[in-house]
Amino acid sequence: MFKAIAFDLDGVITDTANYHYQAWKALGKDLGISIDRQFNEELKGISRMASLEKILAFGNKENQLSDTQKKELAAKKNAHYLSLIKKISPKDILPGISDLLVELKEAKIQLVIASASKNAPIILDGLGIKDYFDAIIDPDSLANGKPDPEIFTRSAEVLGLSPSDLIGIEDSAAGIQSINGANMFSVGVGDATSMREADSRLPSTAGLSLDYLIRVFN
Ligand code: B16
Ligand code: MG
């Protein structure tokens, strides 16, 4: 039996992935770079600065901006993103997640947030579910972002567990690679192509339950 779950946040607990997309799309438009949902799949789970670099490379503008200009653009995107999520509330929790958190707590399973987002504490507060989590990994404390395994390895460490005691749940290809690289069981939700390397896959969070996780883990 697993002892803990490491949850990705954006795209697993709440659909902020869509707000990230809107904010990057608007910034891209300012820069004359058009991005679509297919390209956006590559940004999921990737840090703010790494996402900006990918967008600039996509638009063949990677060598045109100074570090200061890039920081300003990332700050502009984040300000837009924060305005989009200002009214986030418990009704923005994705289907099945609230019941799952209750079930996991009752079963004494520990819960940790393994999100690349620096905004994770604000989002969890808005959703009203921060107290369910035993730890939130600070992405600033990591040397490498997803797809590097560090964030999921750290999730096991902070709980004093081995990665094989945990399940990681993700919606991004980079995140699934990160879980697998940490030698943790991976559950992928959403886009089937992005989730093809997951140990177990579901089309939506609605299918997640304690019973489902026990069945696939065993
Ligand atoms: P922020 P996750 C990731 O969160 C998002 O998927 C990704 O699109 C975003 O760029 C990244 O967080 C950083 O977010 O700009 O809020 O620090 O999926 O790892 O929960
Ligand atoms: Mg995600």
What form results from the Cα inertia axes?
globular
Q: Work out the number of β strands.
A: 6
Counting DSSP H or I runs of 4 or more residues, the number of helices is: 9
- Strands of the widest sheet, in order across it, are 3-2-1-4-5-6
- SSE order in H/E notation? EHHHHHEHEHEHEEH
> What is the share of helical residues?
40-55%
Largest sheet: 6 strands, parallel
Spell out which ligands are present: 1,6-di-O-phosphono-beta-D-glucopyranose, magnesium ion
Q: Mean pLDDT score, rounded? A: 96
> What fraction of residues sit in β-strands?
5-15%
- End-to-end C-alpha gap: 7 Å
Q: What low-confidence regions span 5 or more consecutive residues with pLDDT below 50?
A: none
Topology diagram in text:
Blueprint: E1 4-7, H1 16-31, H2 37-40, H3 48-58, H4 67-84, H5 97-106, E2 110-113, H6 120-127, E3 135-136, H7 150-158, E4 166-170, H8 173-181, E5 185-189, E6 200-202, H9 210-217
Parallel strand pairs: 1-2, 1-4, 2-3, 4-5, 5-6
This protein binds 1,6-di-O-phosphono-beta-D-glucopyranose and magnesium ion.
Describe the structure.
It is a single chain. With 218 residues, the protein is an alpha/beta fold. Helices cover 43% and strands 11% of the residues. It has 9 helices and 6 strands; from the N terminus they run E-H-H-H-H-H-E-H-E-H-E-H-E-E-H. The chain has helices at residues 16-31, 37-40, 48-58, 67-84, 97-106, 120-127, 150-158, 173-181, 210-217; strands at residues 4-7, 110-113, 135-136, 166-170, 185-189, 200-202. Strands 3-2-1-4-5-6 form a 6-stranded parallel β-sheet, with helices on both faces. Helix 1 (16-31) packs across helix 4. It is globular and about 50 Å long. The model has no long low-confidence stretch (mean pLDDT 96). The site of magnesium ion has 9 residues, from loops.
